[in-house]
Amino acid sequence: MAKKSAKPAIKAIKKAPVKKSAVNKSSEKPGPYGAKKFSTIDEYHSNFPPDIQVVLNQIRAVIRKAAPQAKEEISYNMPAFRQDKVLVYYAANKEHLGFYPTPGPLLLFAAELIKFKSSKGAVQFPYDQKLPVSLIEKMVKYRVKEESERSKKK
Fold it and tell me: 0.85 cut: is pTM over it?
């Protein structure tokens, strides 16, 4: 019996139609996890379910209290607070609120952050736990101080 060539099978694979499920549709996906570009923090918050909006409004109020001179903006399609330079960002995710205060506060408050998942510049606050308001406030105040000192050196 003669061996069959594998070439026809390879041609069939190359010509096979791509299933729609195999195509990355993230750019087509509406809402907070897709390609929608937000222009205000209110618009960002409004794209989430009411229970998540409560958490978003809570962290926004904490940041405003800790950094009253900071201006709100959308940066990297996330809520951000700027005082000369961006102080902090936050973003709603499926299971947690991501908080991005840069590495400095995360190093300084590492002992208090031990129960949360974190990386070099971010910390995750799960929705099923109470938001650590006083810790967030301390980190934001530290960022204000850090940026104020940086600005003085210019």
Answer: no
Residue type at 69 in one-letter notation: Q
The amino acid at residue 99 is F
Residue with tokens 């003669």: 2
pLDDT tens readout for residues 144-153: 999 988 877 7
Could you read off the pLDDT of 31-65 as tens digits, one per residue? Answer: 454 568 999 999 999 999 999 999 999 999 999 99
Distances (CA, A) of 149 to 84, 112, 118, 137, 146: 12, 24, 26, 18, 5
The C-alpha angle 143, 149, 152, rounded to 5 degrees, equals 140
What the chain holds in terms of domains, given with CATH numbers, is 33-145 (3.90.1150.200)
